[in-house]
Amino acid sequence: xxxxxxxxxxxxxxxxxxxxxxxxxxxxxxxxxxxxxxxxxxxxxxxxxxxxxxxxxxxxxxxxxxxxxxxxxxxxxxxxxxxxxxxxxxxxxxxxxxxxxxxxxxxxxxxxxxxxxxxxxxxxxxxxxxxxxxxxxxxxxxxxxxxxxxxxxxxxxxxxxxxxxxxxxxxxxxxxxxxxxxxxxxxxxxxxxxxxxxxxxxxxxxxxxxxxxxxxxxxxxxxxxxxxxxxxxxxxxxxxxxxxxxxxxxxxxxxxxxxxxxxxxxxxxxxxxxxxxxxxxxxxxxxxxxxxxxxxxxxxxxxxxxxxxxxxxxxxxxxxxxxxxxxxxxxxxxxxxxxxxxxxxxxxxxxxxxxxxxxxxxxxxxxxxxxxxxxxxxxxxxxxxxxxxxxxxxxxxxxxxxxxxxxxxxxxxxxxxxxxxxxxxxxxxxxxxxxxxxxxxxxxxxxxxxxxxxxxxxxxxxxxxxxxxxxxxxxxxxxxxxxxxxxxxxxxxxxxxxxxxxxxxxxxxxxxxxxxxxxxxxxxxxxxxxxxxxxxxxxxxxxxxxxxxxxxxxxxxxxxxxxxxxxxxxxxxxxxxxxxxxxxxxxxxxxxxxxxxxxxxxxxxxxxxxxxxxxxxxxxxxxxxxxxxxxxxxxxxxxxxxxxxxxxxxxxxx
Amino acid sequence: xxxxxxxxxxxxxxxxxxxxxxxxxxxxxxxxxxxxxxxxxxxxxxxxxxxxxxxxxxxxxxxxxxxxxxxxxxxxxxxxxxxxxxxxxxxxxxxxxxxxxxxxxxxxxxxxxxxxxxxxxxxxxxxxxxxxxxxxxxxxxxxxxxxxxxxxxxxxxxxxxxxxxxxxxxxxxxxxxxxxxxxxxxxxxxxxxxxxxxxxxxxxxxxxxxxxxxxxxxxxxxxxxxxxxxxxxxxxxxxxxxxxxxxxxxxxxxxxxxxxxxxxxxxxxxxxxxxxxxxxxxxxxxxxxxxxxxxxxxxxxxxxxxxxxxxxxxxxxxxxxxxxxxxxxxxxxxxxxxxxxxxxxxxxxxxxxxxxxxxxxxxxxxxxxxxxxxxxxxxxxxxxxxxxxxxxxxxxxxxxxxxxxxxxxxxxxxxxxxxxxxxxxxxxxxxxxxxxxxxxxxxxxxxxxxxxxxxxxxxxxxxxxxxxxxxxxxxxxxxxxxxxxxxxxxxxxxxxxxxxxxxxxxxxxxxxxxxxxxxxxxxxxxxxxxxxxxxxxxxxxxxxxxxx
Lengths: 654, 548
Hints:
Chain A is mainly α. Helices cover 73% and strands 4% of the residues of chain A. Chain A has helices spanning 2-21, 26-52, 82-105, 112-131, 135-153, 160-191, 196-205, 222-237, 246-249, 255-264, 269-276, 278-281, 285-308, 312-332, 336-363, 381-395, 401-418, 424-450, 458-463, 469-495, 521-533, 536-554, 558-565, 567-574, 579-625, 633-653, and strands at 59-69, 72-80, 211-212, 220-221. In chain A, the strands form two sheets. In chain A, strands 1-2 form a two-stranded antiparallel ribbon. Chain A has a two-stranded antiparallel sheet with strand order 3-4. Chain B is mainly α. In chain B, strands 1-2 form a two-stranded antiparallel ribbon. The longest helix of chain B is centred in the middle third of the chain and has 37 residues, at 253-289. Classes of the chains: A mainly alpha, B mainly alpha. At the A-B interface, strand 1, helix 25 and helix 26 of A face helix 6, helix 10, helix 11 and helix 14 of B.
C-alpha cells in the first residue's frame, strides 16, 4: 500500500519534471505526462477497491520526517481512508481526461510542453493535498495547487488580462491562505500536534484548552476560532463570498485548466478540507452557521450573475461558484457526505460542461461570446448531446447525477432549518430558489449556443465542424458518469457506512439518519426519484427551464426589452455587485496608495539611506580591505606575527 | 618510556601501510611506463584510493584503539574523517585529470604526491602524539608545496608555491615551538598523558589563584592557613597535594605560608607557559585551516595554483586540519578549554568578517572562493568552541559539507576551463544557463548551498553549528554569525545572477569527459539530496563522536 501510494503521488511529479525541465518533443511530453496520470488513476482505482471493497484498513503512515523543531515535526505521510480514496479517483480521472483533451485544445500552442508539465505538477500537488495525514503537508499541497493555478491562469503571459487575472487570483488566495495558516497555527497551539489523528482524537475527547484569548479580556471558544480560520482558507480556495472574485477572472486561462482546476478539483479543495476536518467543525455550531450562511450567499447570488453573462466560459464559471456554494451549504448543515457527494458528481458534469464549452470554442476559432453563436447543434452533434447531458445533470433533472446530490443538499438544509441552526432558514430558501436560477442560466446558455439563429460570421460558419476525437473522447467519457454516478453511489455515500471513520457527524446533526432503509437499492433510488418529482426543487427546475425556453427560443427579443426596463439592477449585475470595483479601489488602490507612502518614506529615506548605505559601506570597506592583501611575502609574514602578538597579548599576558 | 614493551598493534594502521606501499609502487611503475600508457598511473591511483577506503571501512574501529606504542590512534571519528578525505581526493582526481592533460602537466608525480598528501592527512587524523601530528602535517604540507609548484612554467604558480612554503615554514615553526613548550611543562608528547598533566596543572592553577587571593586578603597568617585549607579539595594531586602535605605537617603558620608560596609560583609559571604553548599551537592549526589573521596565504595560493591543485588544497586538507584541531585542542588541551574557547571566538569572528566582506570585492572566482573558505572556517570553528560533543559533531558535519561544496565549485571552474583559458573570472560564468542549463543548475545548487539556503545541505551545516552555539549560551555570537552569513550571501547570489540573467559572452560549447560529468553532477546532487535528508550525515557525525 505504501509503495502504491508513493507511486500514485510521484508519477505525476516525475512526469512534470521530465516534460518541464528537459528539452523533450511535444509528442513525448504528452505521452509521458498522460501515462503518468493514467498510472496514478489506475493505481488510485486499485487503492479505492482495496479500501472500500477489499476491507483494507485505513492506511495512515508517516514516510519521511524532514525536520523536528521542538514539538513541531514537519513530515510527509499519507492517510488513505474512504474519503481520500474517493478524492483520489475523482482527481486522477478528471485530470486524465483533461490531459487527453489538452492534446486537441493546445495543439498549436508554443507552450505545449510547459502546459503538460504544469497540469502534471498540479495533479501531484492535488494528490499531496488530499492524501496528507498532517496539517503541514495539507498546507504544502494547498499552496502548491495555488501556485500551479497561478501559473496556469497566466499561461498566456503576454495577454494583459491573463496577468491581471492570475495576480488577482494569487492575491485573493493569499487572504484565504493567511486565515488558513493562522488556523493551522491555532490548531498547533491548542493541540500541540499537527497530525490529523492526534488532533481529531484530542478534539473528540474534549482534551484541550476550550477557550482562547486573542485580545486580552476576550474569551473565545477555541474550536470556533480554529474552524472559522480554517474555513477562511477554504473560502479563498473554493471561491466563497466575498473571496469569490478571482474565479470568474481565472477563465483567462486555457479551457482545460478551467475544467481541471477551476471546476473539478482545486476549487473543491476547500470543501474537501472542511469535510476532512469534520471532527473539529462538528464541535462548533457557530462556525457551522458561518459556513452555512457564506455558502448560501454564494450559491444564490453568484447564480444570478450567471444569467447576465455573455461569455460561454463565464456562465460556466459563475455556475461553478454557485455550485460550490451548494457544497458549502451542505458542509454548514453538517451533511459533509452530501457535500462530498455533490463535489464528486459536480466534478464530472462541470468538467464535462467546461470541456464542452471548450469544444465549442475550438470550433468557433476561439470565439467565446454566445451572442455570436447559435444553431451549433447540427455542426457539433457530439458536443451538443454531451453538453445536454451535462446541463441536465447540472440543473438536477431526475435520474441524472446532479439530481441526487443537489436534492440531498436541499434536504440537509431543510433538516438544519428544522433543527433550528442559525442561518439555516436563509440557507434553505437560497438553495431552493437557486434551483430555478440554475435551470434558467444553464438553458439560456444552451439555447443561445446550440439553438436559434446562426449569428456567427460567414468565414467561421464555413469552417465549423465537429472537434477531433481527442476532444470528443473525454466528453463522452465524462458524460457517462454525469448520468450514472449519482444513482449508483447515493446509497453507500449518503445512507450507508461509506464514510464511517472518515467523516464524523454528531448524531443530532445527521440529516440522513432516518433514511437508512432496508429495502433494495434499486427500489430506494426509484423511490428517491419519485419523491423528487413531487418536491419543489423539481418544479422550480422545470420552471427555470420553461423560462429559458420562452425567452430564448420563443421570444428571443424579450430579454432585451426587459433589460431596458430594469436598467439599474441589470447594471448592478453586470458589475458583479460592484465587488471588483470596490476591491480595485479599496484594496488594490488603497494598498498602492499606502505602498506609495511607504515607498517614499520607508524605501527612499530609510532603506536607501540605511540599508543601501550599509551595503555601500561594506562594499567600500571591502574594496579598501582587499588592499591589505598586497601580495608581498613580508607583509604576510608580518601580519602573522602581529596576529601572534595580539593573541599572546590578549590571552596570556593580560 | 619503556621501549622494551613495544605495543605496535600494526593492524590498525593497515590502510596507511597499504597506501604508503602503493604510493611508492606507483612512483616506480610510473617511471617505467611508456608515455601512451601513463593513464595506468591514474587508474592505479584511483584504485589505491578505493582500496584504502575499503580497508578503512573494513577495519572500522568500535572504540579507541592505540597503536605504534601509543603514537597512533584509531577511533570512529578518525575513520569517518579518513573515509571522507579519501572520497574527496577521489573526486578531486577525477576533476583534475583533463585539466592537467590540457596544460601538459599530467604527470605521475601529481598523483603520487597526492597519495602522499592523503597519507599525511590520514596520519594527522590518527595522531595520538604531538610528534605524529607534526609529522603528518609536514608530509601533507611538503606534498602540497610541490604540487603547486609542478606547473613550473606558470609564474603565478611558482610564486604561490614560494609564498605558501615560506609562510608554511613560519607556521610550522610556531607550531613546533608551541609543542616544545607543552613538552617542557608536561614532559610528555602523548596526547592522553598530556591531557592528564594539563588537567592537573589547570586544577592546581585554579586552587593557586584562590589561595593567592586569600593570602593577599587576609593579613593574619593563622587565619590565612585555615582559609587555604578550605580551598584544598581532597584527593587532589600535583601541586595541590604538595600544599596539603605542607599544611598537614604544619607547626608554624608563617613558615607554612612561606613554604606554600614557591609551589604556587611554580604552578602559575607552568600555567603561563602552557598558555604560551597553546597560543602557538593554535596558530599552527589556524594557519592550516586559514583562519584570520593566519589566512594571508589562502587568496594568493588559491588564485596562483593550477585550479586542479587549488581544488585539492581546498577540500580534503581542511578535513585533516579539523582533525588536527580536534586532536590537539580537544584530545590534548581539554584542560585549557576556557582559554582556547576565547581565542577561537576571536578567530572565528575575524574569519567570518574578513572572509565574507572581502569576498565581495573580488572579480576572480578562485580568489572569491578563497575568501569564502576563510569565512567557512569561521563557521566551522563555532561548533568546536562550544566544547561539547554535539558541538564537535556539528563542526565535523560542517567541514565535510564544506569540502563537498568546495569540490563542486572548483570542479565547475575546471569544467568551464580549457587549454589556454582558465575560466577563473566571475564574468566567465555569464550566461552559463544559455550555454548549458544543466551545469548552470548544478552551480546554482552549489552556490545556494554555500550561501546556506534551504533545502541545500549548506543550510543544515550552518544551522547545526548555530544551534550548538546558541545551546552553549553564546546567542550574541550566533547573531554575529548570521549577520555575516547574510552579507556573504551576496557574492554567492551574484554568481547565480551572472549565470541566469546575463548574456553569455563566450559561446564555446562546454566539453568534458563522461566520468567528469557524472562525478560533478553527482557531487551537486548529493548536496541537494543530503539537504533533503540531513539526518543521514548528521547521524554519522554524531555517531563518530560517540553521541547517540
